[in-house]
Backbone:
């Protein structure tokens, strides 16, 4: 029996021309089932949630029917009911709860978490302030807060990301709705925390008999969690049915493509499948085939840059304890080598990258940069040596929307490095700009346009082109695909793989996503709390992980494969346990494989 | 919260000291001083007798001592010819221009200035708050368009012009005398209920005139803040929890939009004090503004320095109030989220 049924739901946003966000969408959310709504950005999945909650902006045109038939009230058609109707207000929070993607921005910063949970209960039931507080604390306990009473009085900025999302779920469920809509609830979280939050949703679904509409772009999560699947592409339903059947039998090209675009720890594909748009192996090959341009390279594997026992300590304001962002970290990158750096947010990955690019200096230890067979401390580089270092190391930022100057054309952006280093004449720069734009598979007409004309994936291509302008020897990529859709991520990863093969530079690739790193890196270092806890050749690491934290990361990585699905309960249980060994020294347990584990575990491993 | 308030009040002391030192230095910056100007004038008239009196005054007011010593004596940090006798001891100094103690010259003016400024700040918020609020409810609607036009007009019209227009129309059409801050018969009289009423009646027009320009800015600011806030994800999130629109607006956007609005109290005060000088001259208001003007022109050091220090103190007080309200409104200020990055 469906609790929510969508019939021929179409949605148009005003504009020139009007944007059709949903086109005759029909599916059901079954009673007591988890229905996953899968799609990439722009597929209309969030618009569907917004329409269901009556939160559409002015001017949006909605047609069809959204029938809500739960035990809490009489059946309602939410598509024809006015959002201003008091009955709709009772639906919001009272019969359908909504969990948002970014819990920090979805909570007011100046109110306590508890007051925002309690207000939901008070908005729907005539209860006293004290009763609402008790109910909110009970809800926090149910969502796994370690100390619910203290959590009630905390402000959002005082909580960790995982706890914030638990509080968000508590707020959505405070008035005991029968339906929960979760809109990308774990996208902002680290993999291990993500698994815990998913396990929580699964547990609450069982305990409270909820019907869940789970919105995501990640097929791995769908495989782990969903009973039913609806696949949305450009506002249309491509596929729907029970999860097992869809994963086993779907021959739909879009679903297959999505599956192929997801990097996997279990099958290391040479290239990821690409859903739509150009795939540019040819472009990269063409660029590298110009032999005259090729700079003489040092022998592959010879040392390029190395961190030697570096530490970095931040002293916060107002006498709080100093933060050890990095403690005694050593990591070497050779010519032509790609090194992956994995760890959750706050583990020190980006700090290490900033030391490598000399944006700041280590408090202890040093960074050695090798040039002409001689290693120099980055801190002492000056003048011509520093300029040469800057030419040889390039950086690609996480957020392609913020990394490009919106007031500069793409041509200006791509030729700026030449201008800074006074290289190539006016004509030469034009030639290079064209080569670069070809290299990343964008049309040459793009050179005359400004960044806002491009999508996120296209902007990241431009940022990569800019990084490659001076033919650097090392490219540092800080989470370059985490702001992008899976299919776009697949394009970028393929592009990076091709470029490396053809041009032979070294990467430092930073990511919180193990599967992405495994896809691109020769060697992987795992960081936790400012230390490297394990470092090994990529294939070796994923087969023979020795450190408990690495194992937990691998176990928490979702797979877009129903047979190999993530066991949420087990991951959550493991996360409760200690993953320890933070301070143990790195021990070589196999050639090139170091791990921070005690001697006893070496024998066990 | 209490600790924060205490800390802020303590922090005001060095700030006030630094400000008064700076003011004293700036007031003394032009070459010469009141007394040497006087000496020159007397000599050019060939009078020798007064010169001796002036020499006595130079020692009496320590004009022969170095700058820092003069400052310290004036502020009451150091004993002068008569022991500790400066601002800290309640002696506001001597005005050469009026040949009377500064306290006597200013008299009621200090209190009236504070009163006028407080009334103006109050009026600015009284006008800006509801107008900004209603404007933000329907941006681009008839009310918003009207309010926007009026606030730009308020910004664009010089306040002294507005004062003149009101002065003339009030006199010609309603027979009202709006010059002065009270009926002339109360001037110099001790405070009484009648005098107070007279002041209140006279206060309204000048306060309105001075407030109008600032109110225009504040309306624009509150409106922009509110429009930013109503589209925040947490407002949508609260709506998705089923809150009614009225409760939603008062609980979330209003409270957050209020913070930058409140933070402006500190900035508002000095601009009001300096902006009101011309209006005070035009409307013949018994505030410190016109006195400051003549004191600066005549290089009457102690009078000018005192008035400016008084204004600085008023500004610090405004900033303290706005900081305390901010801390109360926003836990991130109180609990120091900055320490957590």
Residues:
């Amino acid at each position: 029996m469906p609790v929510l049924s969508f019939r021929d739901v179409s949605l148009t946003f005003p504009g020139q021309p009007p944007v059709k966000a949903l086109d005759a969408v029909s599916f059901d959310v079954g009673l007591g089932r988890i229905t996953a709504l899968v799609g990439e950005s722009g597929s209309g999945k969030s618009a569907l949630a917004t329409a269901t909650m009556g939160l559409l902006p002015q001017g949006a045109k909605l047609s069809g029917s959204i029938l809500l038939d739960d035990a809490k009230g009489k059946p309602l058609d939410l598509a024809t009911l006015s959002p201003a109707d008091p009955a709709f207000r009772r639906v919001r929070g009272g019969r359908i709860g909504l969990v948002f993607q970014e819990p920090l921005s979805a909570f007011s910063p100046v109110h306590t978490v508890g007051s925002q949970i309690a207000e939901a209960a008070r908005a729907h039931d005539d209860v006293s302030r004290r009763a609402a507080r008790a109910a909110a604390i009970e809800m926090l306990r149910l969502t796994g807060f370690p100390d619910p009473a203290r959590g009630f009085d905390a402000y959002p900025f005082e909580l960790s990301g995982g706890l914030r999302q638990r509080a968000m779920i508590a707020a959505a469920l405070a008035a005991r709705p029968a339906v929960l809509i979760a809109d990308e609830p774990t996208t902002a979280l680290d993999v291990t925390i993500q698994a815990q939050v998913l396990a929580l949703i699964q547990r609450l679904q069982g305990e409270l008999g909820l019907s869940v509409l789970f919105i995501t772009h990640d097929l791995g999560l769908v495989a782990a969690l969903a009973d039913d699947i609806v696949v949305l592409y450009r506002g249309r339903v491509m596929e729907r049915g029970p999860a097992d059947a869809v994963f086993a039998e779907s021959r739909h090209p879009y679903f297959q493509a999505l599956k192929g675009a997801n990097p996997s720890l279990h099958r290391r594909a040479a290239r990821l499948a690409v859903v739509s748009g150009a795939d540019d192996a040819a472009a990269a090959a063409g660029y590298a085939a110009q032999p005259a341009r090729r700079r003489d390279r040092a022998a592959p594997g010879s040392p390029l840059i190395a961190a030697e026992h570096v530490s970095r300590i931040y002293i916060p304001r107002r006498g709080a304890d100093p933060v050890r962002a990095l403690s005694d970290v050593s990591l070497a990158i050779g010519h032509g080598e790609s090194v992956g750096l994995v760890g959750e947010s706050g583990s020190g990955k980006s700090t290490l990258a900033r030391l490598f690019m000399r944006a700041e200096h280590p408090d202890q230890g040093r960074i050695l940069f090798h040039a002409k067979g001689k290693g120099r401390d980055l801190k002492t580089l000056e003048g011509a040596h520093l300029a040469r270092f800057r030419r040889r190391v390039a950086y690609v930022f996480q957020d392609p929307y913020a990394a490009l100057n919106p007031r500069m054309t793409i041509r200006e952006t791509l030729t700026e490095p030449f201008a800074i280093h006074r290289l190539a004449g006016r004509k030469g720069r034009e030639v290079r700009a064209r080569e670069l734009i070809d290299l990343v598979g964008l049309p040459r007409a793009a050179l005359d346009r400004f960044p806002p004309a491009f999508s996120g994936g296209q902007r990241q291509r431009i940022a990569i082109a800019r990084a490659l302008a001076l033919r650097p020897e090392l490219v540092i990529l800080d989470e370059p695909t985490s702001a992008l859709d899976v299919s776009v991520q697949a394009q970028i990863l393929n592009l990076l793989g091709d470029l490396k093969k053809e041009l032979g530079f070294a990467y430092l690739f930073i990511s919180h996503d193990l599967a992405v790193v495994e896809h691109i890196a020769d060697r992987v270092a795992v960081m936790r709390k400012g230390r490297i806890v394990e470092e090994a050749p990529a294939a070796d690491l994923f087969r023979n992980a020795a450190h408990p934290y690495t194992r937990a990361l691998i176990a928490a990585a979702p797979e877009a494969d129903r047979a190999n699905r993530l066991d949420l309960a087990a991951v959550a249980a493991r996360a409760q346990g200690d993953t320890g060994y933070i301070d143990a020294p790195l021990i070589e347990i196999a050639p090139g494989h170091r791990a921070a584990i005690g001697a006893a575990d070496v024998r066990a491993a | 919260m209490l600790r924060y308030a205490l800390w802020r009040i303590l922090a005001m002391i060095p700030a006030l000291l630094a400000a008064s030192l700076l003011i004293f230095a700036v007031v003394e910056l032009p070459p010469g001083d009141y007394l040497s100007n006087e000496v020159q004038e007397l000599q050019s008239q060939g009078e020798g007798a007064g010169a001796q009196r002036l020499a006595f005054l130079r020692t009496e007011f320590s004009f022969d001592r170095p700058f820092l010593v003069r400052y310290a004596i004036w502020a009451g940090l150091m004993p002068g010819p008569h022991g500790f006798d400066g601002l800290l001891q309640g002696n506001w100094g001597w005005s050469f221009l009026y040949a009377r103690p500064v306290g006597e010259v200013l008299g009621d003016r200090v209190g009236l200035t504070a009163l006028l400024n407080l009334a103006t700040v109050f009026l600015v918020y009284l006008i800006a708050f509801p107008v900004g609020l209603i404007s933000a409810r329907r941006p681009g609607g008839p009310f918003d368009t009207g309010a926007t036009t009026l606030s730009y007009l308020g910004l664009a019209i010089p306040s002294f012009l507005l004062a003149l227009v009101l002065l003339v129309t009030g006199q010609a059409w309603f027979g009202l005398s709006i010059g002065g801050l009270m009926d002339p018969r109360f001037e110099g009289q001790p405070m009484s209920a009648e005098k107070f009423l007279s002041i209140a009646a006279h206060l309204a027009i000048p306060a309105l005139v001075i407030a109008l320009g600032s109110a225009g800015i504040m309306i624009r600011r509150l409106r922009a803040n509110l429009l930013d806030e109503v589209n925040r994800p947490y407002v949508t999130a609260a709506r998705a929890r089923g809150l009614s629109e009225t409760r939603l607006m008062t609980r979330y956007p209003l409270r957050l939009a209020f913070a930058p609005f409140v933070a402006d109290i500190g900035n508002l005060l000095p601009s009001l004090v300096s902006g009101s000088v011309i209006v005070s001259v035009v409307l013949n208001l018994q505030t410190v503004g016109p006195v400051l003007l003549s004191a600066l022109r005549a290089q009457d050091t102690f009078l000018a320095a005192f008035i400016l220090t008084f204004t600085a103190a008023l500004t610090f007080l405004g900033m303290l109030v706005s900081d305390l309200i901010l801390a109360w409104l926003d836990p991130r200020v109180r609990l120091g989220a900055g320490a957590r990055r």
The interface with chain A takes residues 232-234, 236-244, 247, 251-252, 255-256, 329-332, 335-341 of chain B (CB under 8 Å). Residues 193-230 of chain B form the longest helix (38 residues). Residues 337-341 of chain B have pLDDT under 50 and may be disordered. The first strand of chain B starts at residue 94 and ends at 95.
